[in-house]
């Protein structure tokens, strides 16, 4: 399977939200990272055929998705950042309702709902009203609805928003498990969600893909600019003015400040430290 995006452009009046975006996606997880206003939601809306483009092509297995129409949507699963649901509906009833909207037959829908509730560890809550669910439980149900039609292309917009760390790890691991035979595009502000599971990271800034590569390759590129500076706590404001800071921790030598910079770090005591994807994010977006 392949999803090809060629010269994709979208304007809102005089504002260009996306400009000549060109990327190719095949099976696996792609992390889409960028600050607010970068164009992530616009790109997702175009990929899910919810928005009209100014220019460009989106080809699914070499055919324009606008020509494929329903055939493409039948292969598409989408978990929006914000999705409405009736709090009085049970988890099972909500998923059956969504399955009906997708045109699934009654028996097929019932079997698939049971399977997915088991997959997201919510079988025992099938008859519980969603209004009583925690944030993590709601996100797992919304992920389940995106998988109802066993999609080959899965688009996830902030799938762990408002979820505690334990739930986030569970959702992340589940996404990793189901991604083998799918194209998965995962947009998030939580960098750790994609660092360990994405085959490639796409960095989107002001409507442009400014960098793409494996997490490892991107980390390796910024590694020379990641340092740890040891200071006294009262020196922190001075450091904050001068450098991008990705982490703070207390040590025997004082306050250890992880910074990303190409500038001279004298006269501070500096040691090398290991970079991660959060440092990549700060390097390109801060």
List the helices and strands and how they pair.
Layout: E1 3-12, E2 15-25, E3 28-33, H1 40-47, E4 55-60, E5 63-64, H2 65-68, H3 70-74, E6 76-79, H4 91-101, H5 106-119, H6 135-146, E7 153-157, H7 165-178, E8 183-187, H8 192-195, E9 200-205, E10 208-213, H9 215-222, E11 226-231, H10 236-242, E12 244-251, E13 254-260, E14 269-272, H11 277-285
Parallel strand pairs: 3-8, 3-9, 6-7, 7-8
Antiparallel strand pairs: 1-2, 1-4, 4-5, 9-10, 11-13, 11-14, 12-13
Total strand segments:
14
Overall helicity: 25-40%
Give the mean pLDDT: 92
Uncertain segments of ≥5 residues (pLDDT<50)? Answer: none
Element-by-element helix/strand order: EEEHEEHHEHHHEHEHEEHEHEEEH
How much strand?
25-35%
What features would you describe in this structure?
This protein has 286 residues and is an alpha/beta fold. 34% of the residues lie in helices and 30% in strands. The chain contains 11 helices and 14 strands. A 6-stranded mixed sheet has the order 6-7-8-3-9-10, with helices on both faces. The protein has a 4-stranded antiparallel sheet with strand order 2-1-4-5. A hairpin with a 2-residue loop joins strand 1 and strand 2. Helix 4 crosses helix 5 and helix 9 packs across helix 11. The radius of gyration is 22 Å and the shape is globular. The protein starts with a strand and ends with a helix. 35% of the residues are buried. The model has no long low-confidence stretch (mean pLDDT 92).
């Amino acid at each position: 399977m392949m999803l090809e995006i060629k010269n994709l452009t979208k304007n809102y009046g005089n504002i260009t939200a996306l400009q000549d975006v060109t990327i190719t996606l095949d099976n696996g997880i792609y992390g889409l990272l960028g600050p607010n206003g970068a164009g992530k939601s616009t790109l997702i809306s175009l990929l899910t055929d919810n928005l009209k483009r100014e220019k460009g092509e989106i080809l699914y297995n070499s055919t324009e998705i606008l020509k494929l129409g329903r055939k493409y949507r039948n292969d598409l699963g989408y978990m929006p950042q914000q999705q409405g649901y009736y709090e009085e509906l049970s988890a099972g009833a909500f998923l059956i309702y969504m399955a009906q909207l997708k045109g699934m037959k009654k028996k097929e829908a019932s079997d698939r709902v049971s399977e997915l509730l088991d997959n997201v560890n919510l079988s025992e809550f099938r008859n519980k009203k969603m209004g009583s669910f925690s944030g993590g439980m709601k996100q797992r149900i919304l992920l389940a609805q995106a998988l109802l039609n066993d999609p080959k292309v899965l688009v996830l917009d902030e799938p762990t928003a408002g979820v505690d760390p334990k739930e986030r790890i569970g959702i992340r691991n589940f996404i990793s498990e189901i991604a083998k035979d799918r194209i998965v595009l995962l947009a998030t502000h939580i960098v750790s969600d994609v660092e360990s599971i994405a085959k490639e990271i796409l960095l989107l800034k002001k409507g442009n893909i400014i960098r793409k590569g494996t997490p490892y390759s991107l980390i390796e590129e910024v590694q020379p600019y990641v340092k740890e500076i040891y200071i006294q706590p009262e020196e922190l404001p001075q450091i904050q003015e001068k450098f991008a800071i990705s982490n703070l921790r207390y040590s025997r030598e004082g306050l250890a400040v992880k910074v990303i910079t190409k500038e001279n770090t004298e006269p501070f005591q500096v040691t090398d430290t290991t970079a991660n994807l959060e440092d990549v994010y700060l390097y390109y977006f801060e």
